[in-house]
Design goal:
By secondary structure, the protein is α+β, with helices and mostly antiparallel strands. Among the domains are: about 160 residues, tricorn interacting facor f3 domain (Immunoglobulin-like), CATH 2.60.40.1730; about 130 residues, Orthogonal Bundle (Neutral Protease, domain 2), CATH 1.10.390; about 70 residues, Immunoglobulin-like, CATH 2.60.40. The protein is about 25% helix and about 35% strand. The protein has eleven helices and 30 strands. The chain has an eight-stranded mixed beta sheet. The longest helix has 19 residues. The radius of gyration is 25 Å and the shape is globular. The two termini are about 45 Å apart. The N terminus is likely disordered.
């Protein structure tokens, strides 16, 4: 989508938060002790999708480990659905429902260790009133009248369509098997690799599987009259990965231009963040009728074929931003929604890096100026710990997060910043099975730069403060530049009639000789307020 569209959609989303007619659920927040005791290892999801009646019916089988014996096993599933039966270790067990939760009991304690829980259920999933932000299903048709069904659930949680542990701090470490049954003639596009299809009567079942860890909100599928268009891609480390585009059959002649963009964008992202993360599976795209999302190995593309031209090349913000999430969200995952800026802010910053490659530093600067002008700064980006999606989700996690990365680049310099950013995206301590917080990111950059950056992180991310600088004339050609509000000593460029100089700004006044008022931070590296006295 173009940037004007992004702004409009953010405005619509903000309005939707207060709309009483749209039901919303929260994801994340304070982790229930019953779920803190659970380690999810694997999901098997088997559903029949009744498109004509907009219903789903089937089961989810979850392999999990209890750290300690428990009276209750707790799953999340919105109350819209009817739970028909629950089986634990081949035994039918009792359960109760309350506040979109399933409390499973067996009359005796569940032992610590491995358990297999099968939940059979059915119902009409919620319809996404404003996808991708308002979670649920979108039931529509293509231009030829063929069914087109997609799911979005990041902010509301995967519980809007399957029983799960709905918290970002736990992912199925041993992957997911997905069996989706649809009317014959339609195709299911999903994460991982297609294991095969089987037909029965007038239906076809698609079996998709991933062995990677995967966030709940990426465990999704799309249904349409898709045509698969594919080509191989060789990664920066020499691995060959299929680029698979599930495009509506009616649009198949547009596929190669999208794959051209995807190939170029992959090269750019690999340069800054390391090899494409899912080399054992695919670089996937699925066409959808709404703004795209970062669904692991199957990014959705919802602004078809509306390109901008930069540096003589086609560019799509929708395609690029969601694809950047393969590194920032899917590979590097925040432990708690309180730290969502790590995913969204760095994925947005990646857009500026793309412009750096396409049009040079001036293009990079123009993208950052766009971001800076859209910062609201009404509440901190990081509002504590164990924060749910509705509380943490503002446009500042995108725009202020990206601007902070630019500030960090300036403070520590390119020779430290870019290798450290790549280390965050490639080091096993921060990727795949592991999760990150703002403190983890701060410590990494502090250690690599040998600068205590915690005051800067806190200032930008945990407050709404901005750098406050006073410029005061002391004589005809004499001035002082002084920080009135600053988290730490910061490098800054000051320009005057005698040229520019880079100094370390502190609370102490800096004397400048200039026949004109000096200009501070002409490059716009900081969020700041400048007062000339």
């Amino acid at each position: 989508m173009n940037y004007k569209s992004i702004f409009i959609l953010f405005l619509l989303f903000s309005l939707s938060l207060n709309a009483q007619t749209i039901q919303r659920w929260n994801s994340g927040g304070k982790l229930n002790p019953l779920q803190a005791n659970m380690d999810i290892r694997h999901y098997t999801i088997s559903l029949e999708v009744d498109i004509s009646n907009q219903r789903i019916n089937g089961f989810v089988e979850t392999d999990l480990i209890l750290a300690h014996p428990a009276d209750t096993i707790l799953f999340d599933l919105i109350d819209i659905f009817k739970v028909k039966k629950i089986i634990v270790e081949k035994q039918i067990v009792s359960f109760s429902r309350k506040n979109d939760k399933i409390f499973i009991t067996a009359g005796k304690k569940f032992n610590e260790g491995k358990h297999k829980v099968r939940i059979e259920y059915e119902g009409k999933p919620p319809i996404a009133a404003r996808p991708p932000w308002n979670g649920g299903f979108t039931w529509t048709t293509d231009k030829n009248g063929k069914p087109w069904v997609v799911i979005n659930d990041q902010l509301d949680g995967a519980k809007v369509y399957f029983p799960c542990k709905d918290h970002p701090s736990d992912e199925p470490n041993e992957g997911v098997d997905l069996f989706i049954t649809v009317p014959k003639g339609l195709t299911v596009a999903a994460f991982g690799l297609l294991q095969g299809t089987s037909s029965k009567g007038n239906t076809t079942t698609f079996h998709w599987k991933t062995n990677y860890t995967i966030s709940n909100y990426c465990i999704l599928f799309n249904i349409a009259d898709y045509q698969l268009v594919s080509r191989p891609y060789k990664t920066i480390l020499g691995h060959t990965v299929p680029m698979d585009y599930y495009i509506l059959r009616q649009d198949a002649n547009k596929a190669q231009s999208v794959l051209d963009i995807r190939e170029r964008d992959t090269h750019i992202l690999e340069k800054y963040f390391g090899e494409y993360p899912w080399i054992k599976e695919k670089i996937g795209i699925a066409e959808v009728p709404n703004p795209g999302m970062e669904h692991q190995t199957m990014i959705t593309y919802g602004d078809p074929f509306n390109y901008q031209r930069f540096g003589g090349q086609n560019y799509s913000a929708n395609l690029f931003h969601e694809f950047a999430h393969e590194w920032w969200a899917n590979k590097v995952t925040n432990k708690d929604w309180a730290h969502e800026w790590i995913q969204e802010g760095i994925a947005s910053y990646a857009e500026a890096l793309c412009f750096r490659e396409l049009t040079g530093e001036k293009g990079y600067d123009s993208m950052l100026l766009y971001f800076k002008n859209r910062i609201e700064n009404k509440k901190p980006v990081v509002q504590g710990e164990e924060v749910n999606t509705q509380d943490t989700y503002t446009r500042d996690i995108y725009f202020k997060g990206a601007i902070f990365m630019n500030t960090l680049r300036y403070v520590i310099g390119d020779e430290i910043f870019f290798p450290t950013l790549k280390k965050l995206a490639t080091d096993p301590n921060y990727t795949y099975d592991n999760f990150v917080t703002t403190t983890d990111v701060e410590k990494l950059f502090s250690n690599e730069s040998k600068i205590n950056l915690k005051p800067l992180f806190d200032f930008y991310l945990r407050t709404t403060n901005v750098l406050e600088i006073t410029i005061k004339q002391t004589d005809v050609t004499s001035w002082t530049v002084q920080a009135k509000q600053i988290p730490m000593t910061l490098p800054i460029e000051i320009s005057g009639s005698n040229g520019s100089t880079k100094v370390n700004l502190t609370m102490q006044p800096i004397k400048i000789e200039s026949v004109t008022p000096p200009v501070v931070d002409l490059g716009g590296h900081y969020l700041k307020r400048v007062i000339i006295e």
